[in-house]
Design a protein that fits this description.
Oligomer: heterodimer
Largest interface: A-B, 31 and 23 residues
Number of helices of chain B: 0
Low-confidence stretches of chain A: none
Structural class of chain B: mainly beta
Distance between the termini of chain B: 40 Å
Mean pLDDT of chain A: 92
Distance between the termini of chain A: 30 Å
Radius of gyration of chain A: 13 Å
Helix content of chain A: under 10%
Helix content of chain B: under 10%
Largest sheet of chain B: 6 strands, mixed
Order of helices and strands of chain A: EEEEEEEEEEE
Strand content of chain B: over 45%
Order of helices and strands of chain B: EEEEEEEEEEE
Structural class of chain A: mainly beta
Mean pLDDT of chain B: 91
Number of helices of chain A: 0
Radius of gyration of chain B: 13 Å
Largest sheet of chain A: 7 strands, mixed
Chain lengths: 111, 113
């Protein structure tokens, strides 16, 4: 347990489904992030939230929609995904000078 | 975009051997971090280096930040099976941690008994 909890751990969804990924941290960190990890590729930053405000959207397609209701919770809403969106989605939180704390990720498979 | 290149991509060694993993960039970073990721888990922070030429040791792991703050290396002495994992380097663009980290693609290390 790292202090950042992601649910679900695994998700299989059809291209017409709507699902949400959840991330929760009680470390007191004010920044939260969504990253996408595909095989043999660098982690891709998707979204950054500082104090609940989105400060970075790294040209992510609109079929991915983030939500940050408070500094402890972060969601990633998914709809009409493509098979190439299958990947490990990682949530992280941070505080200046302390580095990132990652969750265990959600392994997403789009069929 | 600051690109971080890690080498080698894959490394398989026997228990007791030494290994070195490299992380290189053409850009300067304010700090650089190393993470280890095990299957089915997220990356776990090992160390942060911030000063050019800095060397940090974590038991059998030695981390070095290049003088120009563009490259870094991770050296493992007498590797053990528990060192198996994906080693990721990540550079911070700014002095604080609010900024996004640029990650390398990682080096997969396998240590066999």
């Amino acid at each position: 347990e790292t202090g950042v909890t992601q649910t679900p751990r695994h998700l299989v969804m059809g291209m017409t489904n709507k699902k949400s990924l959840k991330c929760e941290q009680h470390l007191g960190h004010n920044a939260m992030y969504w990253y996408k990890q595909s095989a043999k590729k660098p982690l891709e930053l998707m979204f950054v939230y500082n104090f609940k405000e989105q400060t970075e959207n790294n040209s992510v397609p609109s079929r991915f929609s983030p939500e940050c209701p408070n500094s402890s919770h972060l969601f990633l809403h998914l709809h009409t995904l493509q098979p190439e969106d299958s990947a490990l989605y990682l949530c992280a939180s941070s505080q200046p000078g302390l580095g990132y704390t990652f969750g265990s990720g959600t392994r997403l498979t789009v069929v | 975009t600051q690109l971080l290149e890690q080498s080698p991509q894959f490394l398989s060694i026997q228990e007791g051997e030494n290994l070195t993993v490299y992380c290189n960039s053409s850009s300067v970073f304010s700090s650089l971090q190393w993470y280890r990721q095990e299957p089915g888990e997220g990356p776990v922070l090992l160390v942060t280096v911030v000063t050019g030429g800095e060397v940090k040791k974590l038991k059998r792991l030695t981390f070095q930040f290049g003088d120009a703050r563009k490259d870094s290396s991770l050296h493992i002495t007498a590797a053990q099976p528990g060192d198996t994992g994906l080693y990721l380097c990540a550079g911070a663009e700014r002095d604080d941690s609010w900024g996004k980290l640029q990650f390398g693609a990682g080096t997969q290390v396998v240590v066999t008994p």
